[in-house]
Amino acid sequence: MRPFQYVRASDADAAARAVAANPQARFLAGGTNILDLMKEDVERPNELVDLTRLELTEIKAAGGGVSIGALATNTDTANHPLIRHNYPLLTQAIVAGASAQLRNMATNGGNLLQRTRCQYFYDTAMPCNKRDPGTGCGALEGLNRMHAILGWSAQCVATYPGDMANALYALDAVVRVRGAGGRERTIPIGEFHRLPGDTPEQDTNLQHGELIVAIELPQSTFAKHSYYLKVRDRASYAFALVAVAAALELDRGTIRQARVVLGGVAHKPWRSPEAEAALSGRPPSEASFRQAAEAALKDAKPLAHNAYKIELGKRAIVRTLMRASRVA
Amino acid sequence: MNDDFDETSAPELTADEEALLKEMPTLTDVGQTRRTFLGQTIAGSLGWFALDLLAHEKALAALSPSPDAVFAAASAVEHPVTVVLKVNGATQTLEIDSRVVLLDALRERLELTGSKKGCDQGQCGACTVLVDGRRVLSCLTLAATVEGREVTTIEGLAKGEQLHPMQAAFIKYDGFQCGYCTPGQICSAVGLLEEARRGDVSHVTDDVTVTTTRLTDDEIRERMSGNICRCGAYPKIVAAIQEAHSGKETTRP
User: Fold this and answer.
1) Is A6–B141 a contact, with Cβ atoms under 8 angstroms apart?
2) Which of B77, B94, B99, B227 to mutate to test the interface with A (most CBs of A within 10 A)?
3) Is residue B8 part of a domain?
């Protein structure tokens, strides 16, 4: 690991100022991703600003919904009574990720910022436009069974690896961030992560030095009919091949509103307005779920080794909606 | 690369190489003289490797065998950090490089070698310890961030000669073979017990809105998925944890 200056931040503004002042500085929260990447020489900060003593850990009711501190751990968030009862989809998504030890360490802000698990990104001997812009994409014509089928570019076919953000997207979350000057702004979760385009080195729309302070969820009508399904190579402790966060609002045998978000298929959580439109106003039935699944994957473009994700994605959507609506 | 190199002739050595060679102890266990070894490697255009190896050997030979000395040589301190923490009940003050992770601090500085380095990437669980009672991976925890916290390692679970119930259960059910993952498995399982008491849910919990503190074997398997056992002692690990959790004897697998 390369040497770095360790700084313990006294408050959020000081932390944001410290990182904003140094282009090579990074925030440190749970450390579960950045320390791994530093050991691999993928991330090379010369300064880490430790956030772990900041009081951004509160999870509280706010404006009919809930405000979740950026530094609350994944474990504390998933198990908070407000989340378990009002947003069980979020609980399910969080506990589908990583291991108990990692969830005890990982924070919500850090979870949003985890970087891709593309093996070409990790392997510094290989080209990667995300790690070293301009060097090319090793995965485009390499081993790409784990990679994107939607929204990719010739510059990058990596997927966003997280689970929590998929559920947050289905629950209409906004991310509250604070800049170095103390000014706060909110970013809808759907605009937080980026598609790769020609700048795959930028995972998100955060400015350097902007600190995530909270994730806010509005009041939800989805608690009764939601489900998170994660399909992976083994039963636990693996990244998604395909994941589905689905939420339905049912009213006397009709779907009033639907949310369908896919994970493991794109450079960001992939919401499908086409699938949601196919569900809206229809009865919750296997037939309407199949139509929604077809609509969601209509524009998918597979790489050499991941065409399986298209059929897998469709079946995963149907199964998730069956479970969410309790049709099965 | 010298394509015309004759294996039987002695290689030409530079003054630096000659000097290094004189200081080297004899490599008696590799079945060849050092000069031949060095000559072959240089001929194979691996001269830099040989020189690097010799330099390391020289540096190591000059050291006293104390763990502190080895540690100091292994990584020069670039950005020193002072950390005061409690480990197994005792307050410890460490002067370390900012890069040192908790696992290395425990093993190399405090000589607590029970916590194991498996993958060093947060994928195997062998380094699991408890920080303020919660199970975490010490390989992905910077020691500097543990300032003021209480760390419990496998060495701190027993009370004198009295084993922690989880340790006793692992012995009773033979919850290991080679034993390398065992300290991490046991620390992880101790953390699991507390999570279960709190009513935490898991990926296999059918309804996350319902709180239960009794774990099925499936729940234990899922909750222990962060600890890999190469020997495959999983059935006995689950049995041991189930007994420590439920207080009831379980069927021996």
Assistant:
1) no
2) B99
3) no
